[in-house]
């Protein structure tokens, strides 16, 4: 079982448009509504793979009730933490070439009591979890050290932690040695304070995060592929994608694929890339099922192409 923690969930509506023309009336060619937030998406991807998951998240108001309803309809068990503020609503606009424009609301401000209740709920519901995936930004009211406290408490209870966040929250949590952290290229660059131009630059940055406490780093490099840097070695994987329909939740699907496959080693990395590649071919934040995956399209190697220039370098 994979338990997910989403401190700042959302109700997400995605519109597909022929083009995004500022100041014009635009008619959508398709739209959908999904429960959102990184951890929520991980749970949705785990459930789509036919595996058990439990989503722990603060929910408030009508949007929060709708998020719980949508998750229930997808067969996902929810452990809600009632909060006074309303769950945020986000909008994404997807264009045919894969360009995605996102408008994310701030979300509610959690009180000290709500913060502690969220931590307590994770502890009380984590018995039997193979992994706890802590994902996304922290809402107002939670200090940057909140994830660090969660990692410390989870480790004390014997659980393994996967952490997908960024900025001060990521850096603060490293001292508690999360089992795997999953930054994208931009977040990795921000964490080490310098640009990334090549795959080798990303490897060095991942090694620095390990020196600061991360036990393993699963780094997404966008269209170039993914890196895994862990005790057993450094691995690079990629998959060709003919057309990107939407990359909403693709990184979360990738993390789910990694954890489903055990959360370490080249096989788990291959699963991560297969899930991410399948997700970008689907509309909105639809999560891939096993039928959507193409493992044969994934290439994994320990001979990392250090000199390869990134398709989208991070300045």
UniProtKB/TrEMBL annotation:
Residue ranges annotated for the Carbohydrate kinase PfkB domain, each copy included: 14-290
GO biological process annotation, one example: carbohydrate catabolic process
Record key words, sorted: ATP-binding, Kinase, Nucleotide-binding, Transferase
Superkingdom field: Bacteria
EC number: 2.7.1.56
Gene Ontology CC: one annotated term: cytosol
GO molecular function: 1-phosphofructokinase activity; ATP binding
Membership in a protein family: Belongs to the carbohydrate kinase PfkB family.
Protein name: 1-phosphofructokinase
Source organism phylogeny: Bacteria, Bacillati, Actinomycetota, Actinomycetes, Kitasatosporales
Gene behind the chain: pfkB
């Amino acid at each position: 079982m994979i338990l997910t923690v989403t401190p700042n969930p959302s109700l997400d509506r995605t519109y597909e448009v022929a083009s995004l023309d500022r100041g014009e009336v635009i008619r959508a060619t398709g739209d959908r509504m999904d429960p959102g937030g990184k951890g929520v998406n991980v749970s949705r991807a785990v459930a789509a793979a036919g595996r058990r998951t439990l989503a722990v998240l603060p929910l408030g108001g009508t949007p929060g009730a709708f998020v719980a309803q949508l998750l229930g309809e997808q067969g996902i068990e929810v452990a809600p933490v009632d909060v006074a503020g309303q769950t945020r609503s986000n909008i994404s606009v997807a264009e045919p070439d894969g360009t995605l424009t996102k408008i994310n609301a701030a979300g509610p401000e959690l009180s000290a009591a709500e913060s502690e209740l969220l931590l307590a709920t994770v502890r009380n519901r984590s018995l039997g979890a193979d992994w706890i995936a802590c994902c996304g930004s922290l809402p107002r009211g939670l200090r940057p050290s909140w994830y660090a406290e969660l990692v410390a408490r989870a480790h004390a209870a014997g659980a393994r932690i996967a952490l997908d966040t960024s900025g001060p929250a990521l850096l603060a949590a490293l001292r508690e040695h999360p089992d795997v952290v999953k930054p994208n290229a931009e977040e990795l660059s921000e964490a080490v304070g310098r640009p990334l131009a090549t795959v080798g630059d990303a490897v060095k940055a991942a090694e620095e995060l390990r020196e600061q406490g991360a036990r393993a780093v699963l780094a997404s490099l966008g269209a170039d592929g993914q890196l895994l840097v862990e005790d057993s070695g450094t691995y690079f994987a990629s998959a060709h994608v003919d057309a990107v329909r939407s990359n909403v939740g693709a990184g979360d699907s990738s993390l789910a694929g990694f954890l489903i496959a055990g959360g370490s080693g080249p096989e788990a990395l291959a699963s991560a890339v297969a899930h991410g590649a399948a997700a970008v071919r689907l509309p909105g934040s639809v999560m891939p099922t096993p039928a959507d995956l193409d493992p044969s399209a994934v290439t994994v190697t320990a001979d990392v192409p250090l000199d390869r220039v990134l398709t989208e370098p991070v300045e």
